[in-house]
Specification:
The chain has 11 helices and 14 strands. It has about 325 residues and is α/β, with parallel strands linked by helices. The chain has a domain of about 210 residues: Rossmann fold (3-Layer(aba) Sandwich), CATH 3.40.50.720. It has a 7-stranded parallel β-sheet, sandwiched between helices. A 3-stranded mixed β-sheet has the order 12-9-14. It has a two-stranded parallel ribbon with strand order 7-10. Strand 1, helix 1 and strand 2 form a beta-alpha-beta unit. Helix 7 runs parallel beside helix 9. It is globular and about 55 Å long.
Length: about 325
Amino acid sequence: MKNILVTGGTGFIGSHTVLELLIQNYRVTVIDNLSNSKLESLKRVEKLTRKNAHFEHIDLLDVKALELLFQSSHFDAVIHFAGLKAVGESVEQPLKYYKNNISGTVNLCEAMNKAGIKNLVFSSSATVYGDPDSSPIPEKSPLKAVNPYGRTKLTIEYILRELHTSDNSWNVALLRYFNPVGAHESGEIGEDPNGIPNNLMPFITQVAIGKLKELNVFGGDYPTHDGTGIRDYIHVSDLAAGHIRALKKLEEKPGLVVYNLGTGKGSSVMDVIKAFEKASGKKIPYKITPRRPGDAAVCYADVSKANQELNWQTKRDLEDMCRDAWNWQQKNPNGYP
């Protein structure tokens, strides 16, 4: 498998994965509608790798453009990142999320099917587990997404399962990410959210650089060691490497496989704040605010399956994640130009 199509390849995780693909000599085509990302990320990836990725400005809801792409190009596999991803926005605008994420994926799979391309790595999420009964969470845990964003990921998982059941020539890897953070060690590519960040790490870095006044910590009364919620934070570069291992797994024609991608360790919000303060030398002002509905107290991955079957392990710890996120924010105080 050498020709790879990456949907949503200019986004945070997509751009880091494209970089890893180019380093490993894959030929890469990126499609993105640029609704929540910038083409500058791809230009910087090409500068870092001294290799080129072909880019097409395509929305997955544009069936004709997708069909033309698959008619004019041959791909061995597709890595599918494209999708809307803000939990809060999904609660406010559920139809937007169902239309974009689910319809876009169906359009992609139909175009792949017509072209006879049946190798797919799908960017799923730990949100499919909802509020888990216990942690660490293995892949066989009950699936019970609690918000529209998580339900779009879970619905797509069901669609891909049923697609494989109907035609077992499909090989699909469902990758359930936990909490991707950090940035490339160069500081050239990183997380560049639109408006006020939804995720913890970019919120912290924007407080540190002075763009935001203080961090809101949602809930200080959870049954954890310091009262704040515990999550599994994974460095985006480790996550990108997991996609390469998943592609290699598809070469074995495994059918449909599911893997958690995380570190297997939980860190509380306060742990992250302290690690960031240590890495940056900056004090992070914060205030404790009420819990958010649907937030679990503790959520971290059992990654033994990915370790064994993908021969994949994370290499970077929380301090590395904080250092690289801060390096990116310092070099790019306003994100990509």
